[in-house]
């Protein structure tokens, strides 16, 4: 399964109303964190009622928890935009 699909499936547990999973790895080609996989740098744009009443830090922690160590361990960078 492609990493984008894995990220989407994992974040589905937050029941998002809006979810964008954007691979930005091409912008970082040759960067020290580029592992050559083409799947090292990601941006997530999410809106989910389950995140609405949480602090910014708690929202980020919820997203990290939903993604889990397996997915996070394969990312060099993850930008998170919560709407």
Offer a quick outline of the entry.
With 83 residues, the protein is α+β, with helices and mostly antiparallel strands. The protein has two helices and three strands, in the order αββαβ.
CATH class: Alpha Beta
Query: First CA to last CA: what distance?
Result: 27 Å
What fold name stands as the CATH topology?
GMP Synthetase, Chain A, domain 3
Beta content: 15-25%
Give the radius of gyration: 13 Å
**Count of individual beta strands:** 3
Q: From N to C, what is the helix and strand string?
A: HEEHE
Mean pLDDT across residues: 91
CATH architectural name: 2-Layer Sandwich
Number of helices: 2
Within the largest sheet, what's the order of strands? 1-2-3
- Judging from the principal axes of the Cα atoms, what is the shape? elongated
Strand count, sense and barrel status of the largest sheet are:
3 strands, mixed
Describe the SSE topology:
Elements: H1 3-11, E1 18-23, E2 41-47, H2 56-72, E3 77-82
Helix pairs in contact: 1-2
Q: Can you offer a commentary on this structure?
A:
The chain has 83 residues and is α+β, with helices and mostly antiparallel strands. It has helices at residues 3-11, 56-72, and strands at residues 18-23, 41-47, 77-82. The protein has a 3-stranded mixed β-sheet with strand order 1-2-3, covered by helices on one side. It is elongated, with a radius of gyration of 13 Å.
